[in-house]
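The record is kept unedited without comment:

——
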Amino acid sequence: MTMKISFLENRRARRWKQFMLQYLEDTVHPESNSVLTIPLAFDQVVAAFGTSSCLMEKRAGAYHRISFRDVQQEARAFAAFLLEHHVTPDSRVALFCKNSPAWVIADLGTMMAGAVTVPIYTTSCPKDIHAILENSQASILIVDDMSRLEGLDRFPEQYPWLQLILVLHPGSQPLFGHYRDWNEALAQGRKALAQEQGALDTIARTRRLDDLASIVYTSGTTGMPKGVLLTHRNLLSNARGVITIMEVDHTDLILSLLPLSHVFERTCGYYYTLLVGTSIAYAEGIVGFDRNLIETKPTRLCTVPLFLERLHKRILDRQQQASRGNRLVFRAAIAIGERVNRYRTREARKTPDYPAQRNPNGIFERRMTPLWKAPHLLLANALADALVYRKVRARFGGRLRSIITGGAHLAPEIHRFLQNLGLEIYEGYGLTETSPVISVNCPRYGVIGSTGKVLDHIDIDFSPEGEILVR
């Protein structure tokens, strides 16, 4: 069943987006280097959505919610812990752990302390991990458990710059020396918060847009990982650009699967979504992802084409095993979806501002072509929805409205197939160096086979050699 949003909730969402666009206005003006950082922007969100669900994590077989205010308080506690351990502005804190609320809390807390986060892929080999720790000179390392450190030669002796290793889930293993329990660190930070509040306030007043926020190392597919320096302006201006073109708001819930160490998930599945008040649930992993879809009932997903290719194959495989009658119904529904999408595209292209229209507040309007102008399609689409589309959506929890994909090329035939089943697919393009979104398709009026509209305040050109130049 498609999620319905009340008129009042829709108006609240629009007003909040307009406020956030105005609040982040300085990020798109290079001459302005104002006191504006990711933690300060998050403070604005907490003021508006304080007790609402911010993050969701599965523990003991059930998902537990953490409010925006609780995330803020825990991040401040971690920031106080860092200051108490003499972590100075622009020091590095490495995050070598899977997606979880602790990842977000550590990221925000690190920035609140004026330090810089250094994400590390959990799939990184020991050689790459060593290179990243050595190049970044991280003074704090956060890991899921002690198994993350297996394979690192003479650890931590050959890393004299490392002050502490915080372990999220130490289990029953006692921790000595450089090692500390994450929960104990937060408890210590809560006690130190009153004493360190003045220092945190000073940092908040002095950190600026062009200060370094994170060093994101490339995956190393073309050699050793290379660090990309991303400022608060880089990340916030990109999130602002996505706000203008996408429809996610505080009524949505995103199920996060892609690693937060990848800047695509970090911007589109974390910073951008939190800035508009969206809740984020963390999947247990690829193995439990299908189960998590049913448990959380997300409205949005961020993923890569490989996931959609596998989804496409699974749907076709199931149809091969279905009865002849069911296969005929499925093919008829696909054909109806194709006709509906062709009709909507054709009608949309009659407007002079296709593919989308921007309202006076800078937000792209969703202008669904009404099917009542084609009653035969309206009836056929309703029948196909009842017999096929709804069952497909049920496998995603029943509320899924759109999927954002990037990181590789999505085959047009797969895009078209899923769209004909009623799934909105928005394909985008970007780079780690552009933090990351350069362009993305607009709701409803995306062009299959393209990566959509270039975000505001991004300039693109082509070199004589045919390379894409982005500024």
